[in-house]
Amino acid sequence: MPASAPIELRPERKSIDSGLLDDVRRGRLEGLGAPELLTWAIKNLHPRLALSCSFGNPEGLVLLDMMHRIEPASRVYVLDTGRLPQATYDLIDRVRDRYGKDVEVVFPEARAVSAMVREHGMNLFYESLEKRQLCCRLRKVEPNRRYLAELDGHVTGLRREQGVTRREVRKAELESDGRLLKINPLADWSDDDVWRYVREHDVAVNRLHAEGYPSVGCAPCTRAVAPGDDPRSGRWWWENADTRECGLHVGEEKDGSGI
Length: 259
Ligand code: SF4
Prior knowledge:
By secondary structure, the chain is α/β, with parallel strands linked by helices. 34% of the residues lie in helices and 9% in strands. The chain binds iron/sulfur cluster. Iron/sulfur cluster binds next to helix 6.
């Protein structure tokens, strides 16, 4: 088990090298395979680069394994909303033991969450779309934004196959007016590609996948789906399909976390 050390964040962010920005803008990275793209990102951005891993999707664990092989000191973080299932916490500890890795755990602002539940109750997300989005914003989107403000790049497990809103995902994108690189090494991977890597490299994944959960988020907002059903249908199932995003991958500030 690694010793837990405080997360050291760079006090001042310097601007990203213009040559790197040019590589991204001109699409020069789009032809790279996942390990090659990660090698490029680590070489140019580490330690101001971190993998965003929810520990609830196999993609994040595949990337963690790949990045660890390239650079054992590569960084990974998880947003702990305070409502994750026990299986996810167990997996975080399993990964810490297996790779000897510090997983940077990012928490929401306690005061904001406290005020929210005082006003709306513990289970406000079931009451309306607005309240569900408020909960996602305070527990996920804001902490993610705060964490990313200290980095030059982040890696996500987004794949084009994951739905209409993700069809245009590129291998490398610019966010925050060009101040942040978003690296999506699995953009062109299929579901089969992901699970093949998991099997071949014996990657540890969330045990709830074996119980019918294709994707594991917060406990009160995730359920198992029937075989063949849309994998996203187990998330916020009481809402219309077109609102089922937590806000991490939508809007102007695309500060995705692979969740
Ligand atoms: Fe809140 Fe549910 Fe969003 Fe988690 S997924 S932050 S519990 S609304």
